[in-house]
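Example S7 (structure tokens).
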């Protein structure tokens, strides 16, 4: 690193805190220790004198011995604060006039007796002198040492590392850490099978890069793990490194930007340089949103030059990187929506790996993984805990297991009982349900009917798209990739029947809520938005309404330039368009309700299974559909014949 930036004056404050700097850190603690010891000694020695101004005069020990040998003393008393001395011929013979401290002097008693001086009080043990030294010198020293170990520990923790076997890298602040062996494997990550499948390819690539380069296949340079906090993104990244048995370089996005101005960009450079030397390896950037926040939105706060520089450096490094070298960059975020678009372009973090909240089976698996480390009584039923925690993430569940163990210890038990788990569940998840993180039983039921409504109606309509997966586990916004609201050109041609079928199945979620619970929830807002957009596009762009026939009412601007569709019509026409859109929506809504009313028994049956399992894959759903709705009951006539006449 011969970059002038690194030797510039702005880096000096950093060097002072640099734990790798051999000179600095040793000097200041020792200096401090000595200072503190001196202070302690002074206080202990000087205090008695300070508080006894009217009392005896303090003399030194040698003065005392002098007076003793000279026969000037009458009486010596070994007291708690020191040796109290009564001199011969002093004014008040009852009150000692002099005092001196103890010194561990072996022959003192003989010497006093030999001088014919009276001796009173407890003869001080050698011990107490020893103790005094211990208290005044050794103890503060020990305390200081403990204190410094503690400080440096917590600092290295803040630098983003956990277990053992670290090498610190980077001349600038030593902020980059590489673990030679993370010790984690995919077995430590419960559930998350889809994420693991996507990551397995990366592991394979790191293990046998030859296989890929031979054929000319290029792996994505970076993969972005997206999901709510605590779902195991960091854990997964470490598991990838562990599975591939490669070093794991990690740095959190906030560490790039924090503290020292002008350091972020050089830290990125440093990180990549080190990584290249140790390839194959994994570079993991946690909380990448801290650096990768969209430059547009960031400017509303006056912008952040440092962050932007760092981001540019990161982008530059990623571009100039040869992926065949075997460095794979992983990043994690729970805010994919705020990321700078530049980060998501091809050749950067173009692969997204959703890490979702676990469903019932996933939660049970997480509980089991963590329960392995804790002694559980045989009667414990983890599935009951999994059932009671819809919406909880892996970290919550790990926490429940740990809390239950603490609970058991508090109760003096030798193994965790169900009651401990129950108590841990209540304490750790208290308040989360209110904050909307967890679904209440009623919410869960409503969501289940809503989702079943979509799936059932879509399956009843031959024109609608096939149902993939039905789930009531809350999903992260943006984790499913970009949601295309207006159907784009890339999508294969859609017929009018298909468009109507899609609108009908979009509206079926709300229809189910109304039919079963007679409620309307906010959960349908996205459905409504998409259905309305689709209906409007049918009228204004696709010429699919009888009212307007094939008149183009709106032209789509280049979507890459953003902006609203251009209107090609008058205000009166606009009112008629709205009317037409409303008619399509109403008609589809009605049809959805009709289908659901007809198959109410099937709706109830499938929703019940969904509540139980929380997610149904394609096969399970279609099997349930066959049994409870049946093929013969399918509505075969195309929907919406009434919609747009
Ligand atoms: P994130 O990075 O997504 O916020 P972490 O990976 O830091 O979440 O997870 C925090 C902790 O929660 C982990 O160390 C682990 O103990 C636990 N955890 C989270 N998800 C899982 C999982 N799928 N399997 C096992 N443990 C998990
Ligand atoms: Mg994390
Ligand atoms: Zn919906």
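Recovered sequence:
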């Amino acid at each position: 690193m011969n970059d002038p930036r690194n030797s510039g004056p702005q880096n000096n404050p950093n060097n002072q805190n640099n734990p790798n700097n051999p000179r600095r850190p040793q000097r200041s603690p020792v200096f401090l220790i000595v200072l503190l010891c001196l202070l302690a000694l002074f206080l202990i020695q000087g205090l008695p004198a300070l508080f006894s101004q009217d009392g005896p005069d303090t003399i030194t020990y040698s003065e005392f011995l002098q007076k003793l040998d000279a026969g000037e003393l009458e009486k010596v008393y070994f007291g708690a604060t020191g040796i109290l001395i009564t001199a011969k011929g002093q004014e008040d013979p009852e009150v000692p006039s002099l005092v001196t401290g103890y010194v561990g002097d072996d022959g003192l008693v003989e010497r006093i007796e030999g001088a014919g001086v009276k001796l009173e009080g407890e003869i001080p043990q050698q011990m107490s002198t020893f103790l005094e030294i211990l208290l005044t010198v050794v103890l503060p020293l020990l305390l200081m040492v403990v204190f410094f170990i503690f400080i440096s520990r917590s600092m290295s923790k803040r630098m983003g590392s956990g277990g053992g076997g670290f090498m610190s890298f980077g001349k600038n602040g030593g902020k980059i850490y590489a673990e030679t062996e993370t010790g984690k494997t995919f077995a430590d990550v419960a559930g998350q099978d889809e994420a693991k499948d996507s990551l397995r390819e990366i592991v394979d690539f790191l293990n046998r890069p030859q296989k890929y380069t031979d054929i000319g296949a290029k792996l994505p340079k970076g993969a972005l793990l997206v999901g709510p906090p605590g779902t195991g993104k960091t854990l997964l990244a470490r598991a990838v490194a562990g599975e591939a048995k490669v070093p794991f370089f990690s740095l959190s996005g906030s560490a790039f930007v924090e503290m020292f101005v002008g350091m972020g960009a050089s830290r990125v450079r440093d990180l990549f340089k080190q990584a290249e030397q140790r390839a194959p390896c994994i570079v993991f950037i946690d909380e990448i949103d801290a650096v990768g926040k969209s430059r547009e939105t960031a400017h509303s706060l006056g912008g952040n030059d440092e962050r932007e520089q760092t981001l540019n450096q990161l982008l530059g490094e990623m571009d100039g990187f040869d992926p065949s070298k075997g460095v794979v960059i992983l990043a994690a975020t729970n805010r994919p929506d705020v990321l700078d678009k530049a980060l998501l372009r091809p050749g950067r973090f173009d692969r997204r790996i959703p890490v979702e909240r676990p469903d019932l089976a996933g939660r049970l698996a997480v509980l089991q993984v963590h329960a392995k480390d804790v002694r559980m009584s045989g009667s414990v039923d983890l599935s009951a805990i999994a059932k009671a925690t819809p919406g909880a993430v892996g970290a919550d569940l790990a926490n429940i297991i740990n809390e239950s163990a603490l609970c058991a210890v508090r109760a003096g038990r030798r193994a965790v009982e169900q009651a401990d788990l129950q108590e841990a569940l209540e304490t750790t998840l208290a308040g989360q349900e209110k904050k909307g993180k967890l679904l209440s039983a009623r919410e869960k039921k409503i969501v289940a009917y809503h989702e079943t409504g979509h799936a059932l109606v879509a399956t009843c309509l031959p024109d609608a798209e096939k149902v993939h997966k039905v789930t009531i586990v809350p999903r992260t916004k943006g984790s499913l990739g970009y949601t295309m609201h207006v159907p784009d050109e890339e999508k294969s041609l859609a017929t009018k029947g298909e468009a109507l079928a899609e609108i009908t199945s979009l509206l079926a979620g709300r229809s189910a809520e109304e039919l079963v619970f007679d409620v309307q929830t906010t959960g349908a807002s996205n459905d409504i938005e998409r259905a309305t957009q689709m209906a409007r596009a049918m009228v204004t762009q696709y010429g699919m309404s009888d009212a307007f026939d094939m008149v183009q009412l709106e032209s789509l601007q280049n979507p890459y330039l953003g902006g609203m569709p251009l209107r090609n019509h008058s205000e009166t026409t606009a009112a008629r368009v709205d009317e037409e859109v409303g008619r399509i929506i109403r008609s589809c809504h009605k049809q959805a309700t009709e289908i659901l009313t007809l198959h109410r028994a099937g709706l109830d049956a499938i929703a019940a299974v969904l509540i139980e399992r929380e997610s149904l894959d394609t096969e399970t759903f279609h099997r349930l559909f066959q049994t409870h709705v049946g093929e013969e009951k399918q509505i075969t006539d195309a929907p919406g014949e009434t919609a747009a006449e």
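Notes on this example. The CA atoms of residues 167 and 288 lie 23 Å apart.
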